[in-house]
Write a structure and sequence with these properties.
It holds the Pfam family LacI. This protein is α/β, with parallel strands linked by helices. Helices cover 41% and strands 19% of the residues. The termini are far apart.
Length: 346
């Protein structure tokens, strides 16, 4: 494709002159002969202005139809804004890029699964078995896995930097002098779409994996202080009560809770049992939902930049549509938000 510089060389004028002529700059003082010569050479070289190339690219992108496959239900999004924020990030970035989301599917629904081969790309949110995804959409270089614990190496993926997040959590608690540290972890699963009724396969929550690893390296790991629950305030409430029942007279001095909604329930259980936060037990959550800063006490938590995760996934898919060949795996950093539930006072 011809450039302004090439036209300028052929016409024997500067690139600036060519640019101004082709953009019909009426303030430019140039002979009609020169103006005609520039247009003639541009036509011979099949030059297309940047503006036209950009318009053509936007038109092509507007025809791209992508799909969004999420395991979370609308009710899940209402109860826990984590996946809602991810979806909003995807939608906002797709709108900015001119991509059209033609289908939004929920993995935990009961819909009959039909092939999605007509789509130009697919973003998968949540830990859904990649073989099942491949049955739905076979074009693997047009799939982006987002928030998947074990994404396939040959597909693009976006995850939080869980290892660094857990280093921040454990490091903060150790700096405060805590050596008896518990964890309330969600029951993470690798979901499958290939069975009726839908089944789930056990997965490994990276938060729990790195938390256990870091404590074990320091000789502080105790399996009886790891309690599993579902990802809800009710799950956190039940798990904290179970932890307190186990501990009896040897109460952990700190507890990391794998999500803020779970931490809300855990704080309720501590309050009912007369355990003061942070005096008797420091508590750290994960997500930094809006409510976290308004709890009593305000919750120290890990901010997950979920909207950025969604935006990044949409950007990676566009790169694939435009021809990038190699798979890319992105880890989005987190931020530790220190508040009063660990003893901090502003």
């Amino acid at each position: 494709m011809a450039t302004i510089k090439q036209i300028a060389q052929e016409a024997g004028v500067s690139a600036a002159t060519v640019s101004r002529v082709l953009n019909n700059d009426l303030t430019l003082s140039v002979s009609e002969e020169t103006r005609t010569r520039i247009f003639s050479i541009a036509e011979q070289l099949q030059y297309k202005p940047t503006r036209l190339r950009r318009m053509k690219k936007e038109e092509l992108l507007s025809r791209q139809q992508i799909g969004l496959l999420m395991w979370s239900s609308l009710e899940d999004e209402h109860n826990d804004p984590y996946f809602f924020s991810i979806r909003k990030g995807i939608e906002k970035r797709c709108e900015e890029l001119g991509l059209s989301i033609m289908k939004v599917l929920r993995g935990n629904g009961r819909d009959e699964w039909q092939p999605l081969h007509e789509l130009d790309g697919l973003i998968v949110v949540g830990s859904i078995n990649d073989q099942d995804v491949n049955h739905l959409y076979a074009n693997r270089d047009r799939i982006v896995f987002l928030d998947h614990n074990t994404p396939p190496h040959d597909c693009d993926s976006v995850n939080l930097h869980f290892e660094q997040a857990m280093k921040d959590v454990v490091g903060h608690l150790l700096a405060l002098g805590h050596t008896s540290i518990a964890m309330i972890s969600g029951e993470d699963r690798l979901h499958t779409l290939s069975h009726q009724p839908m089944q789930a396969q056990e997965g490994i929550d990276p938060r729990r994996h790195y938390f256990n690893l870091l404590l074990n390296e320091r000789g502080l790991y105790r399996p009886d202080r790891i309690v599993m629950a579902d990802w809800s305030s009710g799950g956190g409430y039940e798990a904290m009560n179970k932890l307190l029942d186990r501990a009896q007279d040897q109460l952990p001095t700190a507890c990391f809770v794998a999500s803020d909604p779970m931490a809300v329930g855990a704080l309720r259980a501590l309050h009912e049992r007369g355990v003061r936060v942070p005096e008797d037990m420091a508590v750290i959550g994960f997500d930094d939902i809006e409510l976290s800063a308004y709890l009593s006490p305000p919750l120290t938590t890990v901010r997950a930049h979920t909207e950025q995760m969604g935006r990044t996934a949409a950007g990676l898919l566009l790169e694939r549509i435009e021809g990038r060949e190699a798979a890319v795996h992105v880890e989005v950093n987190t931020t530790l938000m220190v508040r009063e539930s660990c003893g901090y006072k502003a």
